[in-house]
Write a structure and sequence with these properties.
Length: about 220
């Protein structure tokens, strides 16, 4: 552990739970789906929600996550720490974990996680949620050459959850952003699970993604 920040004044702030669904809540749910973990133990007093990101690559985004959590729940992290190459923001309010679980987010492992139905039923919420998922589990690269084209763009979202990738693929195509799905079935000691991916190729699809969904 390289650093630890505990601020009692921030931990004592009043938790304010949202009273209605919103695009901010949908985006934060997408961030949770991507890089969040949550658990409540037998005593139901020892519980936590933790956002985890790369200590360098995701440092600026972690600040965005803190601002969004403050806006939605009036909370700063109970603990903020950097461990090896990972920055972690932990929230330990029982009511927050219960609220997130009621939103449709699982306790424990997320191998079969899905986008909750309250998001699926609303176009704006779906867009915001995919934005949050892409910010955490997405990547953008430019192939130096594809056929006769230089710097051909490729966006990708990956997950262990086949159902989640199917949902994302359906949402993207519904928004007229053409995407496709593939599965990496290679099993290794470092990667014991199948990895599913939704792909978006080409400049026109990239422009649509930026216009409709955008980047956090």
């Amino acid at each position: 552990m390289n650093s630890t920040k505990n601020n009692p004044k921030k931990r004592k702030q009043e938790l304010i739970l949202p009273i209605e669904y919103s695009t901010d809540l949908a985006e934060e749910t997408g961030i949770h789906i991507g890089d969040g973990s949550m658990n409540m133990y037998r005593s139901q007093q020892d519980c936590s929600y933790t956002y985890s990101g790369h200590a360098i690559d995701d440092l600026e985004f972690s600040k965005y996550v803190k601002q969004l959590m403050k806006k939605l729940y009036n909370l700063y992290p109970s603990y903020e720490r950097i461990q090896k190459n990972t920055i972690m923001l932990s929230y330990t309010r029982k009511q927050l974990i219960q609220f997130k679980h009621e939103l449709g987010l699982p306790l424990g492992v997320k191998d079969n996680i899905t986008i909750p139905m309250w998001i699926i039923e609303n176009k704006d919420f779906k867009i915001a949620c995919v934005k949050g998922i892409f910010a955490t589990d997405g990547s953008l690269l430019f192939q130096k050459k594809y056929r006769s084209r230089r710097y051909y763009p490729q966006l990708k979202i990956t997950s262990k959850s086949e159902q989640l990738i199917n949902q994302i693929n359906y949402i993207l195509n519904e928004l007229d952003i053409k995407s496709s799905i593939s599965c990496d079935k290679r099993i290794t000691p470092d990667h014991p699970n199948k990895i599913w991916s939704a792909y978006i190729y080409g400049r026109s699809n990239l422009e649509k993604f930026i216009e409709i969904i955008g980047f956090s």
